[in-house]
Specification:
Structural class: alpha+beta
Order of helices and strands: HHHHHHHHHHHHEHEEHEE
Largest sheet: 5 strands, mixed
Number of helices: 14
Radius of gyration: 30 Å
Strand order of the largest sheet: 1-2-3-5-4
Length: 413
């Protein structure tokens, strides 16, 4: 019991390390589970040849991580194995090799110092908590971690007996254990590099998709405005048509988007372009659009970014409305630009349930790998402008709310 008290800082550092790598559920019990398995992991005494400590501690640790965190299973399993192999290797070294040369106080401080160094390594050189490499890459990292994990388990569970040279065995164990320890640094670095590369690829993909989306909206809006400007030519044409031809010609004009659709909703032309196109699509799907816009002038943000914010938010709302009866298909948009701040709220009926600890809901589409970019694109833009994004789902109503501060303008002297 005295040892447990003295080593409390080691448990806390390990608990913080887990929180730095993984997303923990927003519940007191989940954090309590993490504290318990941190105590087991950082403070467990492991002797070579003893089967009573290592296997049950390992299984409880994996189970605790799987329960208390909200990340993908592959990510949780891989990172849990990395932490377990590293901490187990250090504990085996302390309890079997260093113990013959050091006293109790030194061993306690050694555990605390190791846990602190592990936390600092993860904090300053590890990947971000939101890092998601995808199952194929996590499975690859899982295969790589099996080697150091196997080293530790082999040393503890399959000890070498009746060695002809007793001095040779501790040196071998020390070498193997430190190889297992240093493999953690390499694997952590590999995950960080892969995460940065994946994030860069996603950012480039999002940028390309956003520019294409904006150009498409811009072109459609231009066609609508051009059609309306050509109205005088259409009227002149009607003068020379027969009564039957006039009727067909007028019917065709009335059904065109430029005649039935509003094109000026606010003072920003990008918002107008998106809303004019989306409202036409919603009308065809019998979705009611309610607007409360207070944007008197052009917004001081990149046109492509504004297009992505409004278009993706509406695309998600339209997708959700399709699964509801016609009388419930209502999308409400409220936007206001005042005092250097753009606020946007989009509400729609939805049956989605937000997972605890997740900022963004997972896509409900079967092909998850090809979908789910909409909210991530919005999130990237909000982060770029140092704004805030909130997702709510209550009483069958899903709301996306965000605000963006105006970018700081720099003036040349």
């Amino acid at each position: 019991m005295l040892v447990l008290i003295f080593e409390i800082p080691a448990y806390l550092f390990h608990y913080l390390t887990i929180r730095r790598l993984l997303t923990v559920k927003k519940s007191f019990f989940a954090h309590l589970i993490l504290l318990f398995i941190s105590l087991l992991m950082a403070g467990m005494i492991i002797y070579i040849g003893d089967w009573s400590n290592l296997p049950p501690t390992f299984l409880l640790y994996l189970a605790g991580i799987q329960y208390a965190c909200t990340d993908s299973r592959a990510k949780k399993f891989t990172l849990a194995l990395m932490l377990a192999s590293t901490v187990f290797a250090w504990n085996v070294f302390l309890d079997n090799i260093l113990k013959t040369y050091a006293d109790f106080n030194f061993l306690v401080w050694a555990r605390i110092l190791f846990s602190a160094l592990l936390y600092l390594l993860v904090r300053f050189y590890g990947p971000e908590r939101e890092t998601e490499l995808g199952n194929p890459l996590w499975h690859l990292m899982l295969l790589l971690i099996l080697a150091p994990e196997g080293i530790v388990f082999s040393i503890v569970l399959i000890p070498i007996e009746n060695s002809p040279n007793p001095l040779w065995l501790p040196r071998l164990y020390t070498t193997l254990l430190f190889l297992s320890l240093f493999s953690f640094i390499g694997l952590l670095r590999a995950i960080t590099v892969l995460a940065k590369q994946r994030k860069l690829e996603q950012k480039n993909l999002h940028t390309e998709m956003n520019l294409q989306y904006y150009e498409s909206m811009k072109q459609q809006h231009f066609e609508i405005r051009r059609l309306r400007h050509d109205l005088s030519n259409h009227l002149q044409t009607l003068l020379f048509l027969s009564d039957a031809e006039k009727k067909d010609y007028i019917t065709h004009l009335l059904e065109s988007p430029g005649m039935v659709q509003k094109t000026d909703y606010c003072g920003d032309q990008t918002v107008n372009a998106v809303l004019s196109v989306k409202e036409q699509s919603m009308r065809q799907q019998e979705i009611l659009l309610r607007l409360q816009l207070d944007i008197p002038e052009e917004l001081p943000f990149a046109n492509a970014d504004i297009c992505v914010l409004f278009a993706n938010a509406l695309d998600n709302a339209i997708e959700s409305c399709r699964s509801f009866p016609k009388e419930q298909r209502i999308v409400e948009i409220t936007a206001r630009h005042r005092k250097g701040m753009l606020a946007l709220s989009v509400k729609n009926p939805a049956s989605v349930t937000l997972e605890a600890g997740n900022r963004l809901p997972s896509t409900t589409k079967a092909d998850a790998g090809r979908h789910g970019y909409g909210l991530r694109s919005i999130d990237e833009i909000v982060k770029h402008y140092q704004g805030n994004l909130e997702i709510r789902s209550e009483n069958g109503v899903f709301e996306l709310f965000l605000y963006l501060p105006e970018p700081i303008r720099t003036h040349s002297v």
